[in-house]
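Researcher: I'd like a structural prediction for the single chain below. Treat it as a standalone chain; there are no partners to consider.
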Amino acid sequence: MFNFLFFTALIIFLLGLFYKISRWFTSKFGDAGQKFTTLQRVTSAANGMIRILFSPKLLLVLKALLVDVLLQARTFKEDILRWLAHMLIFYGFMLLVLMHALDSEITAVLFTDYYATVNPFFLLRDLFGAMVLVGVGVAIFRRYIAKPRRLRTGPRDHYAIIILAVIMFSGIGLLGLKITSHGEFMIMVEDYAGLDDEEEIQAL
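Model: Treating it as a single chain, here is the predicted structure.
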């Protein structure tokens, strides 16, 4: 259930990103914009990217990617709470996707001694989950309590906060059910402990 919600949210995000990028090449604004076809726009964008990759401007692009995209420096200067919410939600969620939803494809490959239920991997998943929850809390506080003057809250903002909260709390609930499940415990005893004595199983 938790992985399903993760992948659903990831697919929705990618579809939204694809839609936004496609608008760059299909929308026509003003008289000048009417003259260019979608193919011409795509070709122009590809040529521009190739020219940048093989020019000194590549360093400026990499700097902008690091400072403005990964570290969100402009957002930090404008509003620290907004920056904090973005950083906690984005990095916490992405690290959860890599270390939890895709653990068998990524984490298990990178770490030969990986087990989902042992530290530091178990602790890191909890930490990343807590980061997302704190980020969502900051976003809720900023949008519905602090309410900065220029902040506008639309349907997409409500949806984003709700879907993130549902994903995180459903994951916490699933983990709680597994911890208290006798069936899950017996599966772990059979897979990892190999105990046959009833007293030893009871002690465990």
